[in-house]
Design brief:
The chain has 205 residues and is α/β, with parallel strands linked by helices. The chain contains 4 helices and 11 strands.
Length: 205
C-alpha cells in the first residue's frame, strides 16, 4: 500500500454505502480529511495510516503512539471551531505488524482513564487523573471532549470497530458506520476486559 491509500479506501467505503461526503474540509487550524453528510448527522473525520516509517524512511514508532498523535492532531484542528457535530479519528493498519483493541484503548486512555463527570449543563467533563503518567492519554483532561470516537477500519478482514469516547460532547451514533462493531471502553478495565481487548486484532493490509 502507498501513502494516501487509506483515504481512497475510506472514500470507496463511503460511496459503497451511499454516505455523501466532502473532501478536504477547512477548519480554523487545518484541513479535516472528510465531512460526511448523512441524514442523521454530519461527521468530521481525519484518516491516518499506522505505518512502520515515513516515505523518507523515518521510523514512526509504535501503533499506540501513532494513534494517540493522530487523535491529538485532529483535536487541535477542531478545538477552536467547537464543532456541533461528532468528530471521529479513522485509522488503518499499514504496518508490518498487528495491533489490538487494547492498543486503541491505551492510546485514548493510557493505563488509567480520566474519569468522566457531568456538569450542570450535561456536558461531559473530566476530573483529574493522577495515575496517568504525564497525562499522555489523548482523551485525558484537555483532550477529552471534541473527539467522538476512533474507527479502526480493517480493510484486510472487514473487522471494522468503532470505539466511542464516553466523554465526548457530541457522541457518534453507533449505527453510523455500516458494518462496524461497537467496542465500549471501560475507563477502569479489569483483567477480563483487558484480555478481551487484546484478542481483537487488526492485521496489516
Amino acid at each position: 500500500m502507498r501513502p494516501g491509500d487509506a483515504e481512497k479506501i475510506f472514500s470507496d467505503y463511503l460511496m459503497l454505502h451511499r454516505l455523501p461526503f466532502l473532501r478536504a474540509f477547512r477548519m480554523d487550524k487545518g484541513i479535516v480529511d472528510f465531512v460526511i453528510d448523512a441524514a442523521e448527522s454530519r461527521i468530521l473525520c481525519n484518516v491516518k495510516e499506522v505505518r512502520d516509517s515515513t516515505p523518507g524512511g523515518k521510523p514512526l514508532g509504535e501503533a499506540e503512539v501513532q494513534i494517540r498523535n493522530g487523535i491529538k492532531e485532529l483535536e487541535a484542528k477542531v478545538a477552536n471551531a467547537r464543532p456541533r457535530n461528532p468528530t471521529v479519528f479513522v485509522t488503518m493498519n499499514f504496518s508490518s505488524d498487528f495491533f489490538t483493541a487494547l492498543t486503541v484503548a491505551k492510546a485514548l486512555f493510557d493505563e488509567v482513564a480520566a474519569p468522566c463527570v457531568q456538569d450542570e449543563n450535561k456536558a461531559a467533563t473530566s476530573s483529574a487523573a493522577p495515575h496517568l503518567p504525564g497525562n499522555n492519554a489523548a482523551s485525558a483532561i484537555s483532550h477529552t471532549h471534541h473527539l467522538s470516537g476512533v474507527l479502526v477500519f480493517d480493510y484486510a478482514q472487514a473487522n471494522h470497530c468503532l470505539f466511542p469516547n464516553p466523554c465526548a460532547h457530541h457522541p457518534v451514533s453507533e449505527s453510523f458506520f455500516p458494518g462496524a462493531r461497537i467496542i465500549v471502553l471501560d475507563r477502569n478495565p479489569g483483567p477480563d476486559t483487558i484480555k478481551a481487548l487484546s484478542k481483537i486484532i487488526f492485521f496489516r493490509l
